[in-house]
Amino acid sequence: xxxxxxxxxxxxxxxxxxxxxxxxxxxxxxxxxxxxxxxxxxxxxxxxxxxxxxxxxxxxxxxxxxxxxxxxxxxxxxxxxxxxxxxxxxxxxxxxxxxxxxxxxxxxxxxxxxxxxxxxxxxxxxxxxxxxxxxxxxxxxxxxxxxxxxxxxxxxxxxx
Length: 160
Description:
Largest sheet: 4 strands, antiparallel
Strand order of the largest sheet: 2-3-1-4
Oligomer: single chain
Low-confidence stretches: none
Helix content: 25-40%
């Protein structure tokens, strides 16, 4: 039994781990991977979906092949911290497809954004044409990545 979540046992964790590595597995293939027969595997999978452990199953696209080559982490400081400003900023960020992640953070900045664009010019246009024009934004500090060392969507289901 997983100590961090008593509702999940080892088989549940193996199912989740296998799915986060390859969500295209059929129930039959998933059952083979985790060592169950198909029916019990399907029941567990259904329960995990219904309980909300599986939020979505998606395809991970190759950004380089699609010509989307620039990743930037932008730290953003707001001009004021009232609820209205936070809500306005959050709603605006949700409308920007270039922002693939947004995290409220502690420290000298309020938010950390992961932004992906075709190239540096597209990033510049995004920052000057859209992000910096938001009335709540006071400061943007950008850090461009040179290369990606590790990128995964897999959660660490078991501590080592």
